[in-house]
Each structure stands twice: as C-alpha cells, then as structure tokens.
Specification:
The structure is a homodimer. Chain A is an alpha/beta fold and about 325 residues long. Helix content of chain A is about 45%, strand content about 15%. Chain A has 13 helices and 12 strands. In chain A, the strands form 3 sheets. In chain A, strands 2-1-3-4-5-11 form a 6-stranded parallel sheet, sandwiched between helices. A 4-stranded parallel sheet of chain A has the order 7-6-8-9, with helices on both faces. In chain A, strands 10-12 form a two-stranded antiparallel ribbon. In chain A, α8 links the parallel β3 (about 120-125) and β4 (about 145). In chain A, α1 (about 5-15) crosses α2 (about 15-25), α1 crosses α3 (about 30-45) and α9 (about 160-175) runs parallel beside α10. Chain A is elongated. The first copy, chain A, starts with 5 loop residues before the first helix and ends in a 10-residue tail after the last strand. At the A-B interface, α4, α5, α6, β2 and α7 of A face α4, α5, α6, β2 and α7 of B. β2 (about 100-105) of chain A pairs antiparallel with β2 of chain B, so a sheet runs across the interface. The structure holds a DNA duplex (30 and 30 nucleotides).
Chain lengths: ~325, ~325
Amino acid sequence: MAKVTLQSIADRVGVSRMTVSNAFSRPDQLSADLRARILAAADELGYVGPDPAARALARGRTGSVGLLINGSLSEAFEDAVSAAFLASVSDELAGRGMALTVMPSSSDPAFVPARDVAVDGVLVYICDPTAPDLGWLERRNLPMVVVDHNLREGTASVNVDDRGGARLAAQHVLDLGHRRIGIVTLETDPEPLNYPARERMLGWRDAFDPAGVEPVVVRTPYQPPTAAYDAARELLAGPDRPTAVVCFSDAFAFATIRAAESLGLQVPADVSVVGFDDSRLAASSRPPLTTVRQNVAAKGRAAVSTIAAVMGGGQPEQVMLPTELVVRESTAPPAG
Amino acid sequence: MAKVTLQSIADRVGVSRMTVSNAFSRPDQLSADLRARILAAADELGYVGPDPAARALARGRTGSVGLLINGSLSEAFEDAVSAAFLASVSDELAGRGMALTVMPSSSDPAFVPARDVAVDGVLVYICDPTAPDLGWLERRNLPMVVVDHNLREGTASVNVDDRGGARLAAQHVLDLGHRRIGIVTLETDPEPLNYPARERMLGWRDAFDPAGVEPVVVRTPYQPPTAAYDAARELLAGPDRPTAVVCFSDAFAFATIRAAESLGLQVPADVSVVGFDDSRLAASSRPPLTTVRQNVAAKGRAAVSTIAAVMGGGQPEQVMLPTELVVRESTAPPAG
DNA sequence: CACGGCTACTGTACCGGTCAAGAGACCGAA
DNA sequence: TTCGGTCTCTTGACCGGTACAGTAGCCGTG
C-alpha cells in the first residue's frame, strides 16, 4: 500500500490538506463534524498521525531534549546518584510532554550526536568542559543548561552547594574533636575536569584551613570499583592514621568503611567516616552514614524547568540548590 | 543573521546546493579541492552541518532508537538491574552511531511518545503488553524488539532463560535437603503483566512439583522499598517457617536476608536464601548471595544487535540468553 | 442595506535537506 | 576517430508536514 499522508486523507474526504492537518493538530480550527469525518477516514486508511520527522522540520522543534553525557554511559547509569538524576529528569520531561534523548559524546567523526541529533535543547551532564561536543552545541545555538558545572557566565546552570556542604562535613568532624583527618576524593585526570570534586575540596579546606588542620588527601578514580577501597585502605593502614575520613561520595564512604573493617577498625569508634550525596543506601547501611544531603530529584526537576525556560526564550538562570549535613552513626568523637 | 543553509553556502561558493550536500555527506562525490573550499565557506558562514530534522525527513531515518518503558521511569533507572541494561543498550547504540531516545508511556493524549517521537526503531522494555503505546508502535510499523517479554510469534524478542534459571535455583535448595520452602516474588497487578515473574514461577514449580514440595508464596510490589522486607518478615515470622527462600530478584533476596536477621535468624544456618540476577552487590554482600546469573550487559547488546537487524530488514529473531546458578554462601543444608 | 466581525476552510510558500537521473569533461583503448 | 567509462557536478522532484494570509459565507447592527 502507498504511504498515507495528509494529502491522501484530504483527497478521500474532499477537503484541503491543511484542513486535515488542523484536524490533528488544531481541533478548534474546524467544525466538530468535519473533524470526525476526517479522523474516520484517516483511521480507515491506516493513518497513525502526522509524521514526527516532517512535523519537526516544519515546526522547527522536535519535542525532545538531549542529555549530553561524556565519559562512560555505563558509569552514568550504574552510579546510583546519577541514575537518580536521570530518572528525575526523564520523569519531569515526560510530565511536560517531552522525550529524552541520550547523546553520548562521540569518538566517531562521522556521527557526533551533539551535532547530528535533532533536539530542542540540551542538558549537559558529567561533562568535561573541554569536550568538542560542547563546541558543537554552541555552534548550533541550542538552548543548553549545564548541570553540576559552572561553565561560564551567561550559560544557564544547575548546581548544588557542593562547597557549602563539604564545609559542613569538615566542620562536623572538627567539632567532634578530630584533628588527624583524611580525605578520599575523586581523581580527576586531567585535573580541572570535575567541578564538584573541585568545589568540595574547596569546602573542606574552608573548614580545615582556619582550624590549622592539614588533611591527608588520597585520590581515586571511579573505576575499577575496588579503587576506592584500595585507596582508603592505604590511607588507614599508614602510621598516624586519621581518626576521621571525609569522602567525595557515599560510595567512597562505603568503600572506606569496608576498608576500615578489613583492617580491624570499628566505625565510628576507631574512625569516623562522612559521605556525600545521601544516596538511598546511606540511611540503611551499617552503620548508618553521616553524609551531606543533596536532593538529586530536585536537581533533575530544576534542570528540566531551567532548560524549559531557556527554550522558551527566558534569561539563562544559574540555579544553586542547598545541601545539608545529615548526622547519623558513622561519626563520633575520636577515641581516647 | 539569516539562517545558514546549504543554499547560502552554494551561492557563496558558486556551486549547486547538491554539491554542498555532498561535501558534508558524501565526500567521495566531489574533488578534494572543491570540498575544502566548500567547508571553508561553510565554516566562515557559521554553518554547523546539515540540519538533523531536515535530514531525518529527507533520508527517512533519524539515527536514533527509542526505548519504550512503561511504568515509572524512576523505577527503571534506579533499579540496579534495569539500569545496567540501559547502560549496556546506550553504550552499544553509541558504538553503532545511534542515539537513544527514552519514550515514556504517556497518559496525556496530546503527546504520546510512541506515536509522536521520531525514531527508527524501538526497544520495548518492562512493558505491560496491554499498553496502548504498543498499539501505536505497531500502527507506525516501526521495527521493534521486545525485551524480557514474549509478545507473540513474529515479533523479535530478547529474553533470558528465566524459567530454566529458576528451576536451577529451586533444584539447588532441594538438593541441599530443604523441604519447607518459601518464595518471595513480584506481585503483578493485574496478573499477567510481568513475564519474568511468570516464567520464574514456572521454573520453580518445574523443580518443586515433582519433588512434592508445596512452597509458600508471598508476593510483593517493587514499591515502596520496604514492601519486600515486610513480606519476607511475614513469611519468616509464621509458624513452620521455611528453611529456604527463593526470591524473584537479588533485591528481594537482600530484603529477605535483612528480614531474617531482624528476626534473629542466621543466613544460611537458619534459613537459606537464593536471589536472581547476580547483580553487582550479590558477590560482595554478607553473606555472599547464591543467585541465578543473567548477563544483563549481554542482554543489552543482544537487544541492540537484534533491533539493528530488524531495522536492516532482517527476519525478526527470538533470542534467548542462558542463565546459570551461582552458588555462594547464602545457602546451606537445613539445620538439624 | 452596507458594514464589521466571526467561523470555517483553502492556497501558497516554505522547512532544509536527499535521491536518482543526467550532462559535460576528460581519459585510455579499439 | 570514436566509443565507453569514470569523475564531477547539476537538475528537478520529493520527504510530509506547518505557518500565515487570505476568502467565502453568515450573522447582527446602525
């Protein structure tokens, strides 16, 4: 059978193509009676609805928002915190009648999603600010919102108060009386990539420096999953081991706790551990984890409403969401 | 500035629009010299590349594959097993030069992703087979592959051997000598929705029925997260409590273990627990979990290669991936 | 009865590319 | 010289819609 288009339906019913288009896309533009006849004819011919690609071209928008992720997609999906963010984003977009298109950063010059995929706007997440994909997005003049990064003035962004949260965590262990303190944070290579890692480090220092505390810093990549455990073990196995460790994430904190236990140390009796994120497992872990809460779902919602605003022609806002210290049972005053 | 199109570049260089198109999309169709001049002019004019929406219309394909998920997107992203599947799918698609578009099943009749989003093919995942979205996909005649479901003959699908795996799990506890056995499985409401739940139940029965064992079955929804814990507690708190529990998933198994411990029961000394999936946490949990392994990454890869084959005009295949029993330390012979 | 304003529908010009067929130039071989 | 073949580039149709500016008929009003 030949392809069914607006024109075939128009011919069948004896109206103009435009009227058929209106029957589907602007019901108030024609009489209910005619509309019913058109829809009936369309159904009869097996017409599904206006072709999305054609509509996208004619309207100038596609109805879907891109999510630019650079680095491993697996990492993004499998990390609990970023998965929760993605979930929130997709839920929120769905509620606004938009689909989400995942745009991996490409190595193949023949297909660069950031350049070649049709979207109305882009959320930029976990992104190396030097990635060429960002350049494509900008050249395309696509509305964009950067999440967990602060690319530059004038670009909309959604962040959480990483620095403030980290400061609270550091202050908490200081307040408990700790002075020998370790930090397990993310290794970023090359250095300036990870904005939260930078900000959190600044936050920790904001508290430690005035107290005259010089923390021992170990850095570890995300992968492999044992890397953080090994790093923490090394930190805790040395002489003069820290009595408290503040970590870049809850995942690192859990690794640190396991490392401590493997060395026969009790948490928090022998060593206090603080996480970051307040992921779902933090409350139910043993011991329940003291951590810095960020509301990842709110971050997703803010990202969507910000991109919607930018797509709607609004001024690019810079949103900053609060963080909050959640004290549970993985921290205590130092022994002795 | 006016919008830059192929035509403006063509005018500038003094060639036909088609030649400019070729410069971008089929470099072998023109001389290297002219191509360089065209690209230079394009660059000068700030042209980014052929407009994706226009190209999609003209070519008849968009370069992105849809993923139809019905039910909560959050659930899909936050569940470790389905997140791993999504990760594998998106990685694999990226490797083949395609983007992934998440298509939530819509309640808003004005925007139904399954009908209104431009994609070249669709993976159907976690889907209620009665969802109207499926009807839209079929009417659109989109290539599709159903994952973790067996919709009907003639539709391509990717499944794991749920039934065989469940049978192995059940046989394992039988072989250990257990006869009072519980099952913690998924509540599907309405009933026939969840294909893996049905298949696994069949697999358990395949082993229990011939042995004359009548398991005690409790059913629990995914949400809230405490539901499985409560259900397992109820199962284990009753008189004649089971000495072994086989579970629908690792997540349910962990909940069951926690429930057992909350009742003062040791795993596996007092009660053996078997999971399903072999998710990442299974090996490192305490005790390490006996479970049925499915290779979720392979499932993602198979889904992508199958949809690619169908999009390429191939016959719809029905793929079935193997499962395998992984015996760890959460199972032991019954006490006494 | 002329006029303005509504409703319902139509005509035409795009949107920005790709495809398939063709035309001219150049080349080596018969 | 002629012919077929290759390399380049061009021509014209088409992909399947939407935007916008009409137009025709109808109704109420001064």
